[in-house]
Amino acid sequence: MVKIISDSTCDLSEELVKKYDISILPLHILLGGEEYEDGFGITPEEIFRWSDANKTTPKTSAPSMERAVEMLKPYVMEGREVVCFSISDSMSTSGNVMRLAAEELGAEKIVTVINSANLSTGIGLLVIEAAVMAGEGKNAAEIAARIEALKPLVRASFVVDTLTYLHRGGRCSGLAAFAGSALKLHPRIAVEDGAMHPGKKYRGKIDKVILSYVQDMEDELRQAKTDRVFITHSGCDRETVEQVRNYLEGLHVFREVLETRAGGVISSHCGPGTLGVLFIA
Q1: Which of 7, 44, 171, 271 has the smallest C-beta neighbourhood within 10 Å, fewest atoms?
Q2: What pLDDT, in 10s, does the model give residues 54-69?
Q3: Global pTM value
């Protein structure tokens, strides 16, 4: 059976990782002089506290070559095909590290690396599709072909509570962040062609904004692939998350409404109170 590996930015829960037998290769998070692996030994809340105290966004970097080789090696030794997923190549060199690790092991023929052209559970949706196909006995070439066809159909977007973190990370100008804060603006940010693009700006309290954002997608949600939809957030009010879940379940479109928390790398760039609804069109 084909082995599925993803970098840690796919933001899949431990439960889903176990259910679909997915292995996670962690990116790195640098808080000053301290380095952590995403998902190990550091929580998003601790990252937010450090970021606020230091008025800066932590640096994040691709997985280490050593860790990538170590993860691939047992499957390569078995001669087992592996399909790896990375965050968009325009956002990190994670995918390149996976490719170099495969080269180091002389395993380019059995290790396929897919540039998801996405982030967070925009990747996670593709990873689960691949894992389901692997479970059905499909080979790496069949899985890769199907995933490439699905990539343009992934709908990944989110609304942010504060522009401060995007500004600190250089993804939003100081003027825009200040104006957004003063006017209580919450932009919708969508991932298209591997990059983040700002869209509609909502105004008001974040709980109301989140519901408006989800309701604005109703037509697309009703036409979506019915297997699953993700609610992925970086620590939102429980009541708001439940309202989004109830709304999505009330559409009677999806077999599964899955909730996940954004990991350290994604959270460090978008800040607390961010929520996205992600699905395949």
Answers
A1: 171
A2: 888 888 999 999 999 9
A3: 0.92
| CB-based contact 209:187 (threshold 8 Å) | no
The answer to whether the CB of 186 falls within 8 A of the CB of 173 is no
- For residues 269 and 44, is the Cβ–Cβ distance under 8 A? no
The DSSP-derived string for 196-228 is EEEEEEEES-HHHHHHHHHHHTHHHHHTS-SSE
Q: What's the CA gap between 207 and 52, in Å, rounded?
A: 22
177 pLDDT exceeds 60?
no
Is pLDDT of 29 > 60?
Answer: yes
Beta bridge partners of 195: 192
Torsion angle defined by CA atoms of residues 44, 48, 50 and 56, in that order, rounded to the nearest 10 degrees? 120
Q: How are strands ordered across the β-sheet holding 34-37? A: 34-37, 28-31, 59-61
Residues 6+ apart with CB under 8 A from 205: 184
Residue 55: DSSP 8-state:
T
CB 237 within 8 A of CB 207: yes
**pLDDT tens for each residue of 130-145:** 999 999 999 999 999 9
Query: Token match 């967070």: residue?
Result: 120
Q: Exposed/middle/buried for 171, CB within 10 Å: 0-12, 13-18, 19+?
A: middle
Does the pLDDT at position 217 exceed 90? yes
Kind and range of the H or E run holding 84: strand 82-86
Identify residue 77 by its one-letter amino acid code.
M
Closest alpha carbon to 16 in 144, 139, 132 = 132
Q: What is the C-alpha end-to-end distance of the chain, expressed in Å?
A: 28
pLDDT at 172 over 50: no
